[in-house]
Amino acid sequence: MTFSGLVKSIVTGLAVTAFCVPAFAADTIKLGVAGAHSGDLASYGLPTVNAAKVVVEKVNAAGGINGKQVELLIQDDQCKPEQATNVATKLVSDGANVVLGHICSGATKAALPIYTEGKLIAMSPSATNPVLTQSGDYPTFFRTIASDDMQARLGVDFAIDKLGAKKIAVIHDKGDYGKGYAEFARKFIEEGGKAEVVLFEGVTPGAPDYSAVVQKIRRSKADVVIYGGYHPEASKLVNQMRKKRIKAKFVSDDGVKDDTFIKVAGKNAEGVYASGPIDVSNLPMYKEAIAAHVKMFGTEPGAFYPAAYAATVAMLTAIERAGSTDYDAVTAKLRSEFVDTPVGKIKFNERGDAEGVGFSMYQVQNGKYVELK
Amino acid sequence: MDWEFFIELGLGGLTRGSIYALIAIGYTMVYGIIELINFAHGEIYMLGAFTGLIVAGVMGVYGFPAFAILLMAIVIAILYCAAYGYTMEKVAYKPLRGAARLSPLISAIGMSLFLQNYIILAQTSDFLPFPTLIPDFEFMEPIAHIFGSTDLVIVAASAVSMAALTVFIKFTKLGKAMRATAQNRKMAMLLGINADRIISTTFIIGSSLAALGGVLISTHSGQLNFMIGFIAGVKAFTAAVLGGIGSIPGAMLGGLFLGLTESYAAGYISSDYEDVFAFSLLVIFLIFRPSGILGKAPVEKV
């Protein structure tokens, strides 16, 4: 080969490569993954990256989606809103087709206007702030986790529709979790208009005696008590209510759906209702997802892994069903067709919340929490 | 005005106040004699509750009647806690008798942490259920919805033990020696009173009352863990200061005062601010009457 021949072949090679790149790019589906991958909250974000890697490897090994390979664009927002906007801008300009993320509600909220403008679907496995879906401001946002107010909604609907409550006392433990639940519950009861909130009170965790609150419950003549908080106060409250011969039914949250509650409240725990996450640990796909993580990374997955796995599967399946990455076609599929995921069979409602994900009501029966179907 | 609600809250406050008073006496007696705030006192109360739980667990297996279990649990908890109180004084406070006032205080905080962690290691950090040892009395049934059998037993037991303590302090030789030591330890020693023994006795009595409180309250609230001594201790200490620290009738009065205030504030205003009322009361007292309800302003000795 002469020197000029060498140059020629290099030039040709370069030209071929140069032509190849855009052609190749058009043939991949770009899945953006945004979340906290470093910093204090990295443990919330990294399992999502792992989930995306596991799913994508499986999909690519099986020939990709509609004949295209899936490519990951991983971006770290450290759960900081100002970082999240940068990440979102970068993903949009890099041509991501869909985004898995973000992780924290604050960062997600900061990034969403950019995705809305760029018509880019973002699906979070962990952002639970109710406003994200309920405000209607972010039509491109979806999530595979129940929003914070879902439990309160479930508790209120259960109390009114199943237990026929007319007068409801809402009690909480003054903590973020309990009070948040109680405030949502009060809001839903008042909006529904079918029952009234006759008492809204906080109890002091650790106090030896709740008799003043118990007397107020009696005086309010409530037929259902909705309690937001954790099990130590709940068991004390139930015990003292029953001791003072108050028969009002007791409905509570995930903090009370704990076996310690039954152990401590003993026979007074019988008949208590508490909501808890739908049990998915027996789903074959859930087991498969966990096993795939163990195989790939050698460890048990971290927080939000099943939800992130579900989000990745849901988005890729929707693209496959739509036959393209066109925003309107993909959203239509997300909203209309069920997909099997590790967190159950899900589809999304108009607001972007997953149906079939979240909580169900449990009742203590013979010393055990039994899921009420 | 709704009198029924007023009475209900009053009875609730009475139960709560008796509990505070029982524990407050331990604080106030120790302070009266060696001017030390025994921060580990709440932990003695917690130990009492745990001892009661163990006794109740063992006796429950053999099927003793509830009331026998309750008595036995109280007696053993008292013996056990008295031994703890005695040992605690010997280990943590006696070596510091002549030291600056801050040293025994820090020693007390250390003792408190030690006892909490001891329970975490030896028992558990989880919440445990405490069996209902006080049966529902037939004759209480008509008013059980406002004042149950448990409340009755707590109030009665507190009243009896406080009356007994008052008689003991006022009329027995040991009680006199105790008062003398509280007034002026050096003088009492010069007159042949064994001050060390008096101090030990004080710790034993305070711890016994705390143990009694621990068992009764746990059967009332139905649960316990290693932290229950902390809040009860803080509240009882507040009660002791309200009543005038160092004064035994003051501690009783302070406990009831605090219990009733909390109950009425929770009932008529909001239980969201229960602790706010308790501690605002403390602040107001500290500003306007620092010596408490029955306390005497300290006379500077020249």
Task: Describe the 3D structure.
- Chain A: It comes from Halodesulfovibrio spirochaetisodalis.
- Chain A: Keywords: Amino-acid transport, Signal, Transport.
- Chain A: Residues 1-25 form the signal peptide.
- Chain A: This is Branched-chain amino acid ABC transporter substrate-binding protein.
- Chain A: Belongs to the leucine-binding protein family.
- The complex is a heterodimer of chains A (373) and B (302).
- With 373 residues, chain A is α/β, with parallel strands linked by helices.
- Chain A has 2 domains: 10-145 and 282-355, Response regulator (Rossmann fold, 3-Layer(aba) Sandwich), CATH 3.40.50; 150-271, Response regulator (Rossmann fold).
- Chain A has 13 helices and 15 strands.
- Chain A has helices at residues 3-26, 42-61, 81-93, 105-118, 131-134, 150-162, 176-192, 211-220, 231-243, 259-265, 284-297, 305-322, 327-336, and strands spanning 28-35, 69-76, 98-100, 121-124, 141-143, 167-172, 196-202, 224-228, 249-252, 273-277, 339-341, 344-348, 354-355, 359-365, 368-371.
- Mean pLDDT of chain A is 89; it is low at 16-25.
- Chain B has 302 residues and is an all-alpha fold.
- Chain B has 2 domains: 35-226, no CATH class; 228-294, no CATH class.
- Helix content of chain B is 74%, strand content 1%.
- Chain B is built from 11 helices and 2 strands; from the N terminus they run ααααβααααβααα.
- Chain B has helices spanning 3-34, 41-61, 66-93, 102-122, 149-171, 173-183, 185-190, 195-221, 228-243, 248-269, 274-288; strands at residues 128-129, 223-224.
- A two-stranded antiparallel sheet of chain B has the order 1-2.
- Classes of the chains: A alpha/beta (373), B mainly alpha (302).
- The A-B interface holds A 174, 201-204, 206-216, 218-219, 231-232, 235-236, 239-240, 243-246, 260, 263-266, 268 and B 5, 8-9, 11-13, 15-16, 19, 126-129, 144-146, 148, 150-151, 217, 220-223, 225, 227-228, 230-232, 262-264, 266-267, 270-272, 274-275.
